[in-house]
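hey
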């Protein structure tokens, strides 16, 4: 088949498609899939005429493994948020160097040492609630996840800078609730700074304040003896590349900002979705609680993360509404064939995570929450891909899942909660991610005896 035979996601003008994708991304993707379930052209990101959304597992497998004809270009969509030196915005040798420096602190063997701290931070956040209090799960989970990032990644203790940074990061991420800010990521013409009261101006103003605090912390940390510190910032400062060179302050800044956004926003949304589904279905809740109780009153964090049903609940949460609905971009560098389609150099490729996760041959009744899917079958990395794949697979995957499991286990086993929302949750865009639109309204009924 020739490139021209690949169907368009829509016959609407390009600007209208971008608006549709910006405001209702899942609806736009599902309409495109109705035209061709496996692959379609969706020119809604950047200035590229050919932007292919691929949902067929074989196509995604090929994208992840075709190093000779496909490269991973800088992610221009995220550059205004995380900066030019973020791992999201690097390519080639610079990306490989950065990834090598970033990977060790996130290695599977290091993460368990943070288990007890995550449990304590969860309990600290819930201590402020009294029986009968109503709360938004997403806000509460954002508090927990942000505390984890600041203490595990940054190694910050409670204090002035901790409080300042925490408040500013909440304000920074909340900017994406404004459709003009989210829209500006897709419509560069909207990136106009009319002062701190304008949407984009306010976003830039808050980002600059966050940057000042991050650079101050980097500067201070470099004057300290971090030999015995195990937080991720200290490990990154000590890291050296193959030439013996450390990361520059600007690199550290952009990577820390990336971790703040990619690390706490996504995890908070994922845990909120999980709570929504758990407290919707009494049987799911009971099965999970029974499994957690089987470990006894004071379980080891590592044993918690090994529980099969808890793992299935987390995976099904990330399947149904993946926080990122697309993989990071790839670009064709030489003529190639993707499945049965001829692709020309310059073609942009995205794995359509959301659409893959809703293919009926993989996930029957895909709109239903069924954790048992992940007990009955093991899915390939190109069939279930909430953290992307290939050379751009999320380096924070292990920490994110570890945190998600421990927070959920603590909430379900130690507290009595109830979902009190009046309407079903729907996914709503927050920048480039998707979150529960209503925030998941919950009632705190008290601690377990």
């Amino acid at each position: 088949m020739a490139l021209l035979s690949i169907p368009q996601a829509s016959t609407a003008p390009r600007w209208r498609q971008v608006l549709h994708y910006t405001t209702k991304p899942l609806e736009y993707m599902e309409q495109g899939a109705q035209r061709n379930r496996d692959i379609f052209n969706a020119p809604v990101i950047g200035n590229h005429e050919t932007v292919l959304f691929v949902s067929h597992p074989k196509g995604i497998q090929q994208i992840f493994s075709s190093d000779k004809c496909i490269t991973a270009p800088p992610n221009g969509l995220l550059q205004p948020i995380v900066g030019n030196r973020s791992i999201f915005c690097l390519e080639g040798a610079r990306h490989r160097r950065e990834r090598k420096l970033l990977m060790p602190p996130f290695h599977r063997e290091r993460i368990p040492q943070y288990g007890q701290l995550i449990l304590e931070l969860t309990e600290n956040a819930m201590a402020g609630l009294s029986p009968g209090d109503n709360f938004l799960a997403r806000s509460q989970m954002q508090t927990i996840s942000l505390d984890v990032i600041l203490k595990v990644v940054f190694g910050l203790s409670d204090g002035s800078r901790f409080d300042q940074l925490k408040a500013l990061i909440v304000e920074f991420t909340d900017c994406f609730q404004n459709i003009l800010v989210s829209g500006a990521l897709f419509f560069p013409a909207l990136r106009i700074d009319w002062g701190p009261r304008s949407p984009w101006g306010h976003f830039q103003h808050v980002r600059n304040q966050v940057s000042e605090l991050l650079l101050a912390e980097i500067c201070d940390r470099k004057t300290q003896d971090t030999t015995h510190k195990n937080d991720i910032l200290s490990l990154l400062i000590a890291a050296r590349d193959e030439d013996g060179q450390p990361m520059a302050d600007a690199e550290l800044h952009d990577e820390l900002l990336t971790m703040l956004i990619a690390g706490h926003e996504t995890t908070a949304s994922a845990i909120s979705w999980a709570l929504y589904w758990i407290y919707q279905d009494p049987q799911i809740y009971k099965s999970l609680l029974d499994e957690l109780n089987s470990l006894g009153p004071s379980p080891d964090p590592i044993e918690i993360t090994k529980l099969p049903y808890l793992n299935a609940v987390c995976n099904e949460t990330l399947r149904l509404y993946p926080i990122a609905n697309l993989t990071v971009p790839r670009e064709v560098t030489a003529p190639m064939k993707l499945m049965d389609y001829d692709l020309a150099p310059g073609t942009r490729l995205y794995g359509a995570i959301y659409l893959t996760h809703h293919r009926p041959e993989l996930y029957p009744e895909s709109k239903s929450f069924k954790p048992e899917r992940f007990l009955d079958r093991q899915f390939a990395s190109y069939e279930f891909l909430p953290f992307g794949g290939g050379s751009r697979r999320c380096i924070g995957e292990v920490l994110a899942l570890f945190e998600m499991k421990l927070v959920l286990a603590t909430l379900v086993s130690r507290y009595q909660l109830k979902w009190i929302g009046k309407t079903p949750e729907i996914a709503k865009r927050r920048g480039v991610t998707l979150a529960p639109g209503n925030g998941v309204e919950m009632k705190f009924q008290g601690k377990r005896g």
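The CA atoms of residues 120 and 410 lie 9 Å apart. The first helix runs from residue 14 to 23.
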